[in-house]
Amino acid sequence: MVQAQSVRQLSFIQAVNEALRQEMERDESVFIMGEDIAGGAGRPDKEDAWGGPMRLTKGLIAQFGPERVRDTPISEAGFMGAGVGAAATGMRPVVDLMYVGFLGVCADQILNNAAKIHYMFGGKVKIPLTIMTGIGAGTNSAAQHSETLYSVFTHFPGLKCVVPSSPYTAKGLFASAIRDDDPVIIFNNRQLMGMRFDDDVPEEPYTVPIGKATIAREGTDITLIGIGYTTRVCLQAADDLAAEGYSPEVIDLLSLSPMDNAAILESVRKTRKIVIVDEDYPRCSIATDISALVAEEAFDYLDAPPKRVTPPHTSVPYSRSLEALYVPDRAKVVAAAKEALE
Amino acid sequence: MVATHTDLNTDTLLWMYETMVVIRRFEEQARREADAGKLRGMHSSIGQEAVPTGICAHLRVDDYVLGTHRSHHHCIAKGVDMSEMMAELLGKATGTNKGKGGTMHIADIDKGMLGANGVVGSNIPVATGVALSAKIRGSDQVTAVFFGDGASSQGSLHESMNLASIWKLPVLFVCENNRYAEATPFEYAVAGGSVSNRAPGYDMPGVVVDGQSVLDVFEVAREAVRRARAGEGPTLIEAQTYRYQGHFGADDPLGYRTQEEEDYYEARDCIANLRAHIVGSGDTSEADLDAIDRKALSAVEAAAKFANDSPFPEDDELTTDVYVAYP
Residue B295 — very low, low, confident or very high, per pLDDT cuts 50/70/90? Predict the structure, then answer.
């Protein structure tokens, strides 16, 4: 007998794994491909040596076999393009791009084909492709393996972009992405993989809608916008601000394209102040986009200019001492919020 | 420790022996630093020392080498300072890259090391451009680019081989085939079971060599470097080798390969091989080689001390070097 009040806790990795498993069970057209998503390919006794670079796909090959859990050579342009072609012809591929920096290898396939085919072909071909990719600094991995880059993808019409912030949102966004008829890119921050969460993750399949933000903490004095990992940072900062007597509201953006403009505007019209916390590069970014939205649509409500907490306009440094300065953290968010509040 | 050794004499043998021993001691020390938590992932080159050593023996200080995410051995064989390398691994201000690049991006242009690179296959077109530059400038400089069997599946290799061939560029495409692209076996991922057989399609020589024999690598490289320097064009070398450790350190390679296979390659260890050859050839005693071993160890210990004693970068280094000038 399951207790009605029990909370089912999963790690971020477990939640993604469960979503992939359930979607593959639900729909035979779903298959996954990428580098070492199983590992030991072609050696039945060594199958699933890795289960994905982040272990997100562990155990799936045992259940679904190598036809549907398909290790690839290191050929990002090749297998990303293959995902586009398979998606155009009846399949629902999930393609793992290990790190978002490897966009550089397969950009043509994502930006020229996945994003544009539906439009260019007059709406007659759908690309129900899901791309999952690892983002984020903080792991001592240097400039090519630590980027965030989701803003680049939001620049392109035709691509949908989502950023889970927790196991619950990860599971639901994966299900939504796989079921969506457009190409959807899911950006998984690597720091979330190692964090503990106390949110309840139902066992039965569910979706978290693409295009909707959620209020992670309600408040009335200031709006903090978080994206994936920075939602966690905003929640920490909100604790600090609350301890000083303020009432911060935290919006967990979840979806960057489409973006829930209404949720942002509704919150800022209530709180009259906004801090956007974004780990992507600061130029032409989702943070600047939100700042522009607020300036254009809620200018008369603002008691202070919109503030952005982002890294500086620089590549991600390797040295830990510099990397610690790079990533937006709790103290920087609190400082920015207090500037707006005071 | 760069030196150009065209002839296989005692000096050359001892240079190659010392280079390989230094690489191994460096990698062992780097692993200890990683185990102590001073860096996270690290791609060890232990087992693969002979490949860059046999190639770089023929290179001058003004020749160029480009590498991969697993490039400590390329750097040392090309003469990059070990102390600065170790400092880079620890993210220190005194590192080759001022702590900004780390283990996957070590570069020292003064030594002709134009960089390790974390994106698989990414450096191969760059190397082709370095060779193009030499040709346009009328220099006889040679470029060697190292990559793995995994990178042989990237379009960048194929595009670069075609360019280098039609333009007769002075470049060596050196595949260190260590049999695994991360955890994916070579025989699964590479059609035809050969990298070197890509060469005829691009109208260049393709050579397979035992990458555990530095002498064999040395001989193959002699002709490839001669050919490049003479303006006769590129060569593809497939050196069959083996990495003794996992892909990045924390992974267990027995998840995807067998103990028997590991034992087979370790029994053909490149350093032990060369040591036996040198002693057998009579000019050099075990004691002489032991002295080289001790020298290598103390050099690595000094590098580790230098790195650990060095300061982290100043905070304002975070935003320097993004541009040459940005008003």
Answer: very high
User: A12-193 is classed in which CATH architecture?
Assistant: 3-Layer(aba) Sandwich (3.40)
Q: What is the number of domains present in chain B?
A: 1
ipTM: 0.89
Q: Which of A18, A47, A118, A145 is catalytic?
A: A145
Q: Chain B within 8 Å of A107 (Cβ-Cβ)?
A: no
Distances (CA, A) of B18 to B11, B137, B223: 11, 34, 23
Considering A23, A35, A76, A147, which one is annotated as catalytic?
A: A76
CA atoms in the 13 A half-sphere facing the CB of B207: 21
Residue B227 located in a structural domain:
yes
CA dist B259 and A229 (Å) reads 40
Domain A12-193 identical in fold to domain A214-341: yes
Element (H, E) at B207: strand B206-210
* pLDDT tier at A1, thresholds 50, 70, 90: very low
Supply the CATH number for residue B246's domain.
3.40.50.970
CA distance B129 to B113: 14
Confidence of residue B211 (pLDDT cuts 50, 70, 90): very high
**Which residues on adjacent β-strands are paired with residue B146?**
B174
Which of A321, A329, A332 is the mutation pick for testing B, counting most B CBs within 10 A? Answer: A321
Question: What pLDDT is stored for residue B1 in this prediction?
Answer: 46
What DSSP element (H or E) covers B146? strand B143-148
Per-residue pLDDT band at B327 (split at 50, 70, 90): confident
pLDDT of residue A85: 96
| Res. A3: pLDDT tops 90 | no
Half-sphere exposure of residue A175, counting CA atoms within 13 Å on the CB side? 21
B41 CB within 8 Å of a chain A CB: yes
Separation in Å, CA A142 to CA A92, A320, B89, B103, B105:
33, 10, 11, 9, 8
Q: Rounded to 5 degrees, what are φ and ψ at B195?
A: -90, -40
Residue A5 is predicted with a pLDDT of: 62
CATH of A214-341, one of 3.90.170.10, 3.40.50.920, 3.40.50.11690, 1.10.260.40: 3.40.50.920
pLDDT at B56: 98
Catalytic (active site) residue A145: yes
Residue B316 located in a structural domain:
no
Q: Is A321 on the interface with B (CB under 8 A)?
A: yes
8 A C-beta contact, residue B106 and residue B115: yes
Q: Give burial (CB, 10 Å; 0-12/13-18/19+) of B229.
A: middle
